[in-house]
Amino acid sequence: MDDQNGAPVKDSPGEHSPDGHSRGGRPAQEVTVKEGGPARLAIIGGTGVYDPGFLEGAETRIVPTPYGEVEILFGRRGPREVCFLARHGRGHTVPPHRINYRGNIWALRKAGVRWIIASSAVGSLNPQMKPGELVLVDQFLDFTKSRDATFHDGAGGVVHVDFTEPYCPALREHLGAAAASLDLTAHPAGTYVCTEGPRFETPAEIAFFRGAGGDLVGMTGVPEVVLAREAELCYASVALVTNFAAGISPTILTHREVVEVMQANLEQIRALIGRAVDTLPPAGNCRCGSAAGEKGIFNASLGVDGGSGQDH
Ligand SMILES: [Zn+2]
User: Fold this and answer.
1) Total count of domains within the chain
2) What pLDDT digit, counting tens, does each position of 117-166 carry?
3) Given 87, 120, 162, 248, which is the most exposed site by the fewest CB atoms within 10 A?
4) d(CA 210, CA 201)
C-alpha cells in the first residue's frame, strides 16, 4: 500500500484498529465522509478481479473503521468518482470466511459510496447458466455459519431490515441494459446460494441446494449484500459462472480452474462494469437509500448524521 498519497483529513473519535491502538505517528488517511457531496460508486472485485483496469488517477488509501482498517483504491472514470476494493486482498490472501465484511462495507459507506457493483466467481447448479456466462443475482439462500452478518448487534436497538429485494433492482436492471448494449450474455436473475467454505460443496449439498431453488453457489455473497442493505447502499452482484458445481460437473473442481476461467472472462466483466459506470442514472429509482427504516440507525451509528459516533 502507498501510505503517502491519502490526503490527511480528520479522524473521528473511536476510529481505531480493533486492538484499540491508533496508527501511531502516521498521518491520518481517512477519507472525508462525503455526506451531501457527489456520490461515489464502488466496485468490489472478487476472485480473479484484483484491479478494475480502468481507474484514472488511482491511489490507495487506508480507511479506519470500527472493524479494522480497510484498503481501498480511489480513482475516477470520466466524471465519476469510483473506488475499488479487492474482497480477498490484492494477493488473494483472505479466505471467504475470514473476510472483513463489516469493515469493507462500513469503509465504503464512510467514503460516500452510493452504489456497489460486486463481482464474484460462482459455480452453477442450473444447466441454463453455463461457464463463461454472467448472472445478475436477484435472490440468495444463506448457508453461512459463523460470520458477523449485521451492524445491528443490539446497542442501537433491535433492527430487522426488509429483504424482499435483496439486490438493488434499479442497479441490476441498469447492468442488464449495459450487458445488452455490449452483446454480453447476462442472465437477468438468479438465486445465489452462499456456503461457508472454504471447502467446495459435496454433491449431496448441491442436489439439496438445487432442490431448494438455487441457481448458483459461492462463498462470499453473504453477508456482503446484507451489510450493504443495512448501510442503505445500492448493491448489485455480477456473478461469473466458472464451472458447474459438484455432482453436475464431470470433473473435480480446483481453485486454479476457477481463477483461470475468471481471467479468461476478465475483459467482459471490466467492459460491463465500465459501461455501467459510464451510463449510471441518477440515484432514487429504488428504496435502498431508506432500507434501514425510519430510525436511520445506521447513519447515527456511523456518526455522519450528528449521531452518537458509537462504534456498534
Ligand atoms: Zn438501489
Assistant:
1) 1
2) 999 999 999 999 999 999 999 999 999 999 999 999 888 788 888 999 99
3) 162
4) 12
